[in-house]
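User: Could you check the structure of this?
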Amino acid sequence: MTDARGWLARIRALPLPGTIRVMNVCGGHERSITMAGLRGALPDQVELIPGPGCPVCVCPEEDLYAAIQLARRQDVIVAAFGDMLRVPCNAPKSEPRSLEQARAAGGDVRPLSSPEEVLPIARDNPGHEVVFFAAGFETTVAPVAALVAQGLEADLPSNLSILLSGRLTWPAVAMLLDSGTPGFDALIAPGHVSTVMGPEEWTFVSERHGIPAAVAGFTPESLLAAMYSVLRQVIEKRPFLDNCYPQLVRPGGNPTARQTLERVMDVVDANWRGIGIIPSSGFALSAECGSLDARLRFGIEPDEDRKRAGEMPPGCDCARVVLGKIYPNECDLYGKACTPRKPIGPCMVSDEGACRIWWASGVRD
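Assistant: Sure, the predicted structure tokens are below.
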């Protein structure tokens, strides 16, 4: 098996025709690339671009606002994955602007690391409504779907509901490619999403748009193998989808997870924070599971009167970072008003946010 040094040697030996822009879709990939120093190790002609791989960054601002408002109620406990607690929304200065601030103001907000952890919270607090604010991509939504499926086969606590904010990854890349100015020449597709959904979701990149693509894992070896593959495809003008993560990625993905998703979720048009509506890019609970839908239980509807509803905070360029239009340190707020200690935008909050990753790796300029 070729190690990282071997893949680097192969890449450096390629007759690169000029600058080749390679986008990675996954926040985990961006973390591995940055922490391993791969940008500095690759030839200067290879430009690595972080893409739309952070579910926290694109979670609709209105969903976050709704979760905060629920957390301000005395009869409600809000549970959410830890990254979501510090994400700011565009609330009036007199109100909490994050779930963390809502908790500091007396709200009952509890961090989770897995969906199953919400069950004992609901069972131990029968006098409260417990809302699970579930934001994430396919790999996060799949275990949420498994939790929902339990409710079809056995009784879940009657005080439990789900505020779902799930997204699919490939439609965001499709939107970029359909725009005519995608900003990249090759794509590294996400290994964990392909493990669940199958690599076939990404064949449209090469078949429809003629852009090289490769599925990668999270080690430097797997990432460099994928980069070598797409660079060779560019040179040979022979685009296809390569699977450089065969240890876990299989044709068809995980059949059980996919069947569960199809059983309890609908795919709908969905809003991405700061970007707008992307067709067929969101998960919603199916009508059969409506009793678990917090939006129906609490009558949650978008507040169109709220200023900057759905947008990034003022001055924040997270949306362009997510779309690969600029690098994190090209945002005017990066490292100045916006740091991990005092984040302005969601990209500086999440461990999968490009701004947070770059800051953690020492990028200060």
